[in-house]
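A protein record pairs a chain with a discrete description of its three-dimensional fold. The following entry can be read in just this way.
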Amino acid sequence: MMRLRHIFITILLLILSITVSAQPRLRTPEMYVGVHAGAMASTMLFKPNIANIDIMQSPLTINGGLVFRYAGHKVCAIQTELNYMQRGWRETITLGQTTMDYTRQLDYIEIPLLMHLYFGKERFRGFFNLGPQIGYCIRDVATPLPEGVTAPHYLPIDKPFDWGLAGGLGCYYRTRHIGLFQLEARFNFSMGTTYNNRKVDYFSQSNAMNLSLNFAYLWEIKIK
């Protein structure tokens, strides 16, 4: 499984690099720096499944960070970010005749490297982002559990380092003097597991899945 993931990432990066090299260069490259922030719905895919985790009841959290984008070719650019993300999941626990909500919040520092493909007019453009990401968990917060309630996914995570894929779809408006305003819906899927997945371990899969809606403001740096 891990080998197939590596092959997939390699093929993806190769296709993206060929796409960029095939595009004509811009007479004047475009460079932007800025910030973005938004709301995110997050959950975890476990195998064996955790029956009480409802993807439709995913907790809403926040994410945001810094953005750098460089476009040297027509319709293609490279974008990288430094982000703070609140991931996690929500679970309903039944205790006799009562129920309680258990929430797990995992805070990550994340760095995606994205191919930014854009289309449209000079001022108003649509775009598509796609590329790999890496991250590291810096904080793990959970709802306190009643005494005697135990399960493998209530334990501290085994793997704070994370890697995966990110893809986004959105649009932006380039003003003449005050920068660029952007709206993007993005999906993140972690290919690295949160808990150990050896044959002797309980989980064979424990991957994070996130959907976010972000607003960004970017300032164009003029290149002479």
Q: What stands out?
A: The mean pLDDT is 86.
